[in-house]
């Protein structure tokens, strides 16, 4: 096996010794691009695995994506080491094979059939390394669609998520690569389950995580709604909410605040704190179902009340009443969010490529805590091939 390098990993010259690294010592070989595969590798890397990212000569093209793709590489490739290999050459393939021989896990999201053509498929590698866990991130599980090309947006459209997100007749993808990221998460979950199984059997296996099935899993609640009620779910913008107060309200400054009142106990506190004693005393509004049926009678009054408040006043009263509430934040607002900063929810990485290469960026940490510790930055986002010589030297000594 390759020598573990996690203890020597650096962030600005030093390791954060208090970081959460339950997967320290695990060797992961990553042959991925874009979001889904890198997200899987990121989750394993953030948890302490030594993830070696294989890039083509000149670097992963994901590094050079413009517009909405410009953030993919810095977000999903921290805590990894980079090696550049030409997989079109015998030498590059030989190095990849030897790296796989010394890996616990391989993650790949090449097009269906591509890894087999390279001789890097699970059947080939498992004969060389029976303990290898081989994670394939792709569009579809086995079935009629399995060889189709897929993207996050394809899965959102096919899987019912875009239908539920947009207003009737206007399907709309979610505002982030939610299916790519969730597919990566399910891949990482499958890898962890396979590692546990390997402890019993001594053998690895293939894990397959997919976009389409991930999207379908997300809309499972709406499929269940049809099964329970007999009525198909309507798109979220046109839905009949399960609660009478569960929407975005305008404030005096024009800023918007989401407010929800989702239980009878919350309704009592809401009416008391906001001085809505008449509504609180109305017997027809004591239950949630009664409020939903009569929301048209009191929502205009609540909108008028909220429109006379500043955001701070409205959120202060919501907090006093113990209600769920939220300002409408933009992604750029979150980089200095007080809670994320205090809770370890942000990690500072160096932008490796593009116009702002070398600049620092505060990006989301893995949203878990284990034993009271948050996964954090062990290695900065690598430059293309940054660790090639280091990794080849380790391979020579293995």
Q: How does this structure look, described?
A:
- The protein is an alpha/beta fold and 398 residues long.
- It has two domains: 267 residues, Crotonobetainyl-coa:carnitine coa-transferase, domain 1 (Rossmann fold); 87 residues, formyl-coa transferase, domain 3 (2-Layer Sandwich).
- Helix content is 39%, strand content 14%.
- The chain is built from 17 helices and eleven strands.
- Strands 3-2-1-4-5-6 form a six-stranded parallel sheet, sandwiched between helices.
User: Would you report the number of β strands?
Assistant: 11
Output mean pLDDT.
94
Main sheet record: 6 strands, parallel
User: What name goes with the CATH superfamily of the largest domain?
Assistant: Crotonobetainyl-coa:carnitine coa-transferase, domain 1
Percent range for helical residues?
25-40%
Sketch the topology as an H/E string, one letter per element.
EHEHEHEHHEHHHEHHEEHHHHHEHEEH
Give me the CATH fold name of the largest domain: Rossmann fold
Question: SS-based structural class?
Answer: alpha/beta
Q: What is the CATH C-level name of the largest domain?
A: Alpha Beta
Instruction: Give the amount of beta strand, in percent.
Output: 5-15%
CATH architectural label of the largest domain: 3-Layer(aba) Sandwich
Radius of gyration: 25 Å
Described by the principal axes of the CA atoms, the overall outline is elongated
Task: Describe what is shown at a glance.
The protein folds into 2 domains: 267 residues, 3-Layer(aba) Sandwich (Rossmann fold), CATH 3.40.50; 87 residues, formyl-coa transferase, domain 3, CATH 3.30.1540. It is 39% helix and 14% strand.
